Amino acid sequence: MKGIKGQLAVGIVCVVLGLVLALQFRSVQENLLDGIAPAQKASQLASELKKVREERQQLLTEITSLEAKIREIEESESKEDVLVKNLSDELEKYEIIAGLKSVKGQGVVVVIDDPPQDSEMIMN
After folding, report:
1. What are the pLDDT digits (tens) for 27-63?
2. Are 12 and 6 within 8 A, CB to CB?
3. How large is the average pLDDT for residues 55-80?
4. For a FRET experiment, which of 18, 53, 59, 86 has its CA 20 to 30 Å from that of 107?
5. What's the mean pLDDT in 58-82?
6. Residues 69 and 62: beta-carbon distance below 8 Å
7. Which residues 6+ apart lie within 8 Å of 28 measured at CB?
8. How many Å apart are CA 10 and CA 2, to the nearest integer?
9. Cβ(101)–Cβ(92) under 8 Å?
10. Looking at residue 61, what is its pLDDT?
11. Which residues neighbour 2 within 8 Å (Cβ) at sequence distance 6 or greater?
12. Where are the alpha helices (DSSP H) in the chain?
C-alpha cells in the first residue's frame, strides 16, 4: 500500500509540474509569435510612446488654437451685441421724439386756448 500511495503522490506532482511547464511554454511561444524579441519590443514601444507624445502635443496645440478662436468669436459677438443695443436704444429715442411710440410718465402738457373774441374785433 505504501508503494501505491507514493507512486500516486509522485504522479500527481508530475502532472502539476507538467501543467506549469506547459503554461510557461505557451506564454513564451505567444511572445515569440509576435516575431519580436523582448529588446526589440522595448524599442518598438519606446518609438510608439514618442509618437503618442508628439500626437498629444499636436492635440494640445490644436486645443489652444480652438480656445483662442472661441474667445475671439465671443469678444466680437459681445461687441456686436453692444453695437446692436446702442443702435436699438438710439432708434427707440428717435421714435419717442417723432411721436411714433407712446410713452408714460410725467411730461409737459401744453394747452392752447383761443383768446376770447370780441365782436368788435370780428368786424374789423
Report:
1. 877 766 666 666 777 888 899 999 999 999 999 999 9
2. no
3. 89
4. 86
5. 87
6. no
7. none
8. 12
9. yes
10. 95
11. none
12. 2-33, 38-98, 119-123
More confident residue, 35 or 12: 12
CA dihedral 24, 26, 32, 35 (to 10 degrees): -160
Helix or strand or coil: residue 34? coil
Cell of residue 47, nine digits: 518609438
Give the chain's radius of gyration (CA, Å). Answer: 48
Q: Which residue has the cell 401744453?
A: 110
**Cα 99 to chain centroid, rounded:** 49
The number of residues in the chain equals 124
Q: Retrieve residue 44's grid coordinates.
A: 518598438
Contact 34, 41 (CB under 8 A): yes
Q: Which three cell numbers stand for residue 63?
A: 486645443
What is the mean pLDDT of the segment spanning 65-71? 90
